[in-house]
Amino acid sequence: MIAPGQKLSLGFRLKVLHDGVVKELAFAELLTRRTIVSVYMKNNTPSCDRQNDRLVEHAAAFDRAGYNVIAISRDTCGSHGRYAAAKGIRYTLASDPQDQFARATESLIEKSMYGRTFVGPTRAAYVLEPDGTVLAVVPKVDPANHAEQLQAVIRTLR
Prior knowledge:
two-stranded antiparallel sheet; seven-stranded mixed sheet; alpha+beta; 4 helices
């Protein structure tokens, strides 16, 4: 997994949903100021819902502190649109079915579910500078306390 102080490769492109509009752009275009990137597995699943619910509750505070918020999963932007409407999500949702962000952060891991083994992104969060420098990593997100985890990290970065 990428570590604080390292710089992320920013050239990959993603489809994103923000304020109901879908765009495809280079990841670098999303980093207009310090940015929190929260990786989750799938829309409409219990742990991922808790993770995003905490972000929704604290999104305005992150904005006031000077941070963009991006939540990223393998879901399509169509799924993200329905999810954002149902959850009241106003931050950016990114669609990454090819795990480009996970590859850039060296965070693909082997997982197991229902006896099936597969490779997928780890549930983690990253705080990035606009140039892609990693300021902090939360290697294991606690879905029920995700915003609090991020707030604690941000307090150390001021």
